[in-house]
Amino acid sequence: MPGPVSAFVPPYRELHVRDVGDLGNAxxxxxLRREFEQQVRARLPEPMMKGVTRCWTDWSQVWxxxxxGDTRNNRVVLAGRQPQTxxxxxxxxxxxxxxxxxxxxxxxxxxxxxxxxxxxxxTRALADALVGVLTAWAHHRREHxxxxxxxxxxxxxxxxxxxxxATWLYGDEITATVDAQWRLR
Length: 185
Known about the structure:
The protein is of the alpha+beta class. It has 2 domains: 5-97, no CATH class; 103-184, no CATH class. 39% of the residues lie in helices and 15% in strands. It is built from 5 helices and 5 strands. Helix 2 packs antiparallel against helix 3.
């Protein structure tokens, strides 16, 4: 089981295996998600119920409970059939759940970029915009939303870049009217 259970976020949105047999002694169930949750509620702490995950096989769909995992090595830890046991399995390589760059590594690079460049420079503005987009994405992923609203992405990108674009388009002739029109776009 992971350390801080209250902050648990499953490492994979859904799993893909070739056969149910690949899951070993993991706790699995068919049918509806709520039925599976009712069956395992007595065995698992409430925060771990966030780990209930759809698992696709070549022939069917089952439900499993993720307890942790390592996305860099394509491994996932599942709740076992016996109470207080876990099963660690290696997922077959499939590109749609491979995490190319962990968010923590990206955050370190962007923080270093923001520290290295003063505000108002193009590199800093691009880093700020990317931080805004990734922050919105991480929030929506943590809340299990299916997507980020386009207006939120627009706002995250436009706010840091707007002063640079306005200066480039209008030069030193930026007036309050032009600035207000630019904000409305």
